Amino acid sequence: MFDTLQHKGRRKQLLTELSSRFDFNTAVIKAMEMVPRHMFVDHGLDQLAYLDKPLPIGARQTISQPYTVAMQSHLLSEKLTKYDKILEIGTGCGYQTAILSEMGYRVYSIERQRQLYTKAQLNLTRLEYYSPLLFFGDGFAGLPNFAPFKGILITCGAPDIPPELMQQLAVGGRLVIPVGTDIQKMVVIDRVSEDEYVKGEHGNYKFVPMLEGTE
Q1: Residues 152 and 173: beta-carbon distance below 8 Å
Q2: Residue 134 Ramachandran class (φ > 0 left, ψ -120 to 50 alpha, else beta)
Q3: In the chain, what are the domains?
């Protein structure tokens, strides 16, 4: 599967649609223009890759719809600068990981499903994204040995905010997490001091659940 002119045209059309709905950070749109979403889904779903909808990627998981990817990336970017270290919980097929890498961040990403962990490695390597560091493990635990992180992005719906992740957020950093069971609120948490956090909400979304352990 290659990134043809037709794919690029569809991608451009999608991003024009997304930009008409919200004033996203220019860096987000540029990154999404560079990353071929169709190369992160199964070949049979190629024709659906540039619709604004989630798609199955195996292991009962989905690749988030483009609007959601853009919004999470935008919310995170408001507190970050290039080369900042960030933690992603839920690598999935690696698409969001590629977006964050394209934006210039140093990405550490955890996936609990062995099948998807392997798939993400293959996808990112095939597209020559060598800088993200992928880990197979439990996202609730984070990566304390690599903390603190200037940004933390959770790509699955958490029942509540894991305290371990709060502690791994750097002072001055931001955590973006969908919180809830059936429908999630997009919660943004800024750590303003060692013991003070400021929380905000940015609309309703629907994600696959964040689960403990590995498979």
Answers
A1: yes
A2: beta
A3: 5-205 (3.40.50.150)
**Residues designated catalytic:** 64
Task: Give φ, ψ of 26 to 5 degrees.
Answer: -55, -35
Report pTM. 0.95
Residues 33-79: tens digit of each pLDDT: 999 999 999 888 989 999 999 999 988 899 999 999 999 999 999 99
Which residues, including other chains, have CB under 8 Å from residue 205's CB and lie 6 or more apart? 68, 157, 178, 183, 184, 185, 186
- Greatest distance between any 2 Cα atoms in the chain: 51
Q: Can you tell me which residue has the tokens 């509540």?
A: 160
Phi and psi (nearest 5°) for 132? Answer: -65, 140
Residue 1 has pLDDT above 70, yes or no: no
CB 52 within 8 A of CB 17: yes
**What is d(CA 154, CA 164) in angstroms, rounded to the nearest whole number?**
13
CA distance 197 to 171: 9
Which residue has 């969908």 as its token pair?
178
pLDDT for 189-212, tens place per residue? 999 999 999 999 999 999 999 999
Question: What are residue 164's phi and psi, to 5 degrees?
Answer: -60, -35
Report the pLDDT averaged over residues 4-31.
Answer: 96
